[in-house]
Task: structure prediction
Amino acid sequence: MSVPDEIRLLDERDPLRDFRDRFVAPDDENLVAYLDGNSLGRPPRATADALAGLVTDGWGSRLIRSWSEGWMDWPLTIGDRLAEATLGAAEGQTAVADSTTVCLYKLLRGAAAMRPGRDEIVGDRQNFPTDGYVVQAVADELGLTVRWIESDPAGGVTPEQVGEVLTERTAVVTLSHTAYRSAYLTDLPAITELAHRAGALTVWDLCHSVGSVPLALDEWGVDFAAGCTYKFLNAGPGAPAFMYVRGEHLDRFAQPIWGWMGHRRPFDMAPGYQPAPGMRRLLSGTPPITGLVGVAEGVALVAEAGIERIRAKAVELTELVVRLTDQWLAPHGVRLASPRDPGRRGAHVTVTHPDGPALSERLIAAGVIIDHRAPDAIRVGLSPLTTSFSEAYRAMAVFRDLVRHARRCG
Result:
């Protein structure tokens, strides 16, 4: 499939173009484009080498001695690297451990306990299902009421909506920075400020932001945040998530899942739990060392590329997809379900079609890997380190041909 000169020129001028070669190339001759990196990023070549070295050296040669030679501190040292490269956060406030679900539970449960006498949590009904489940679970455990915001599925939560439900009874506001369906970028600083004025704390889900959108958690006054590492950080399937706790809260924060790794003196094997100082108290069980290898390598690539350059390319890629959606897809019943303003849009573009599930299957069968979100949404993920402009163009051309055919057949 030919690509216009203007698209090829975008690739030639792309300052991040060489990063594509630092990822494992898919062994699939039928693949046209991988546009699902917002669900699972591609594997860096360096990760394969690092994992092999772990098996032969750290694990294979040093054996259990590797725990005292660095492994014990990896959740914190790698957390600090992640914070510097992607979160806009000083060291000592970030740890990599557990799944996103467990991290969110720890933060939300601990944050609610820091506001005794307040009995409400603010959440988004359209947030990722796990977030809603965790919110309801914590509310049920503590006897709290959830004040649900009904956000626009093609948009997201606005400061005005938050302001309408905040009261002196609000303990915690918990939302996603980038909406998983629409890629809407919530006004995180404004909402955090609103919550603080009401005396509430904030817990932010950064899963679709970290590694694709510049963040400034310290500057914005964020209290707590969590996010996964297997999307734009390319850390691998099931790689551990991270937790951010603002430094001023650490001494008073009590996370609910006590484990030996978060104990002040873990090798004392003492019967009584005493939380460790600092971010180590956020840990529970034994760190997932193999997963942490992937996080370290993914973070290193993002740090080298620079989050501002990554964001700039994400804007260009999504603008291209929006333009082609308007030109090629809209006449055939495809509707844009992401913000038009690139300043309010993350690194994916969502479109909808009445035949969304079947169309998604046909796209994947034709070599365009996207994902479907019920009932009718198709997400086009643009990962700046691995997606070229030509790849995105070819994928949209396949999309155009499929919807044309579907309309003729209909």
About this structure: The two ends are 26 Å apart (CA to CA). The chain has two domains: 5-43+306-409, 70-304. The longest strand covers residues 170-176.
